[in-house]
Amino acid sequence: MPFPRALAFLALATFALSAHSAAQGIYQTPQDFLREVFAGDPPEPSKLWIDGKLKPGVRAILEHDLDVLRLRYWGKDGRTAWILEEIGKERPITTGIVIQRGTIERIKVLVFRESRGWEVRYPFFTDQFTGATLVTRDQLDRDIDGISGATLSVRALTKLARLALLLHAHSDFADGKQ
Amino acid sequence: MQQWHRRVGMTGAVFFIFLITTGLLLNHTGALGLGKRFVETQWLLDLYHISAPEPPVAFSAGERFVSRLGDRLYLDTKELSERAERLIGGLKLGDTLLIAIPGKLLVVSPTGELIERIDGADGVPSGMNRIGLTASGQLVIRAAHGDYLADLGKLDWRKTTTADVGWATPVTLSPELHQKLVRTYRGGGLPLERVILDLHSGRIVGQWGVYVVDGAALLFLALVITGLWMWIKQRP
Fold first, then answer.
1. CATH topology of domain B57-174
2. What are the distances in angstroms from CA B97 to CA A66, B72, B146, B151?
3. pTM of the predicted structure, to 2 decimals
4. Which residue from A72, B18, B68, B197 could staple onto B87, CB 3.0 to 4.6 Å apart?
5. At what angle do helices B2-27 and B207-234 cross, to 10 degrees?
6. In which residue ranges of chain B is CATH 2.130.10.10 found?
7. The complex's ipTM?
8. Cβ of B117 and A111 within 8 Å?
9. Are the beta carbons of B121 and A69 separated by less than 8 Å?
10. What's the rounded Cα separation, in Å, for the pair A93 and B187?
11. Nearest CB partner across the interface for A83, out of B109, B114, B121
């Protein structure tokens, strides 16, 4: 391989690798997300047991069981914040979701570990969830536009949005419980 | 020809029954759950050279034992769902058991179910290398940057300088429990499907087994040829 061509190949490979590594990372730590959501003063975490009543709904949304029996969440004045994870293709995507009175207030990708599909972190995608609620069969009340090349990440985030709404409805901060 | 056909049929009958049976079983692996059922017969496990890594790392948690063998974690002899490359410690915390593995604390029920996984995202100090309890029963974590008093209810981690900590230290398992653990570990290594597949192909007894099954296949071929030959000859 002549020298200039080898150099160009090396430059391209370096660019591809740096783009790959830029796609993965911690965009915001869960602690910072919670501080931001609760104006610097997050409440103490509450616990939600995934009991027999909740389990079928969780399984229907995720298409598998959760591998833990209890989840933490943070709640105050009818709002709850959830740090949830779901695998896109191979690795879990950590997502922060805030629910207020049964609707999604915001959803944010906090840690992305997959090699593809990181576009789901951008507001042009996550803003679609704002104001979404659950309707029959634990489906969102709207269609979420996908992103080509990020199908599995889109699917994972949509599942987590539905899951957070379901969990909120069973939390101590659900409508009518406070 | 009829005599040869009978001889070949009689010679191969045992093999044919054997191959048909194992073939039918393999055809319904999913329905029979053969991939999820594991062989516990010791001589078969020895035949497959399935052995447990030595020695297990174990911690006493109340009257229970938390241990790691290979990358598998056990509560007594019950295998837990989590895998780990290292076991940092285990102890009894209230009604539950707490297991520390790199970067994570696992809250486990007395029956071995994973209640909760607490990790760096929940604030577990980085570089955790020991866990222990104060005299009053509070959890202490030794991490890369010092000791932390942990409140798992509030997910609160405060630096501490207390010296009054009973650290979880590795223990030696009793020979009985060790043996049971090794048997459990080996018992999870060989699915029934593998054994039936190897029986069907003859590989269970090595290359000679494959030749024997090849011989049975040739006998079956001879049976077909002689059968067809007789049928053609008897046609009017």
1. Methylamine Dehydrogenase; Chain H (2.130.10)
2. 20, 17, 23, 15
3. 0.73
4. B68
5. 130
6. 57-174
7. 0.77
8. no
9. no
10. 34
11. B121
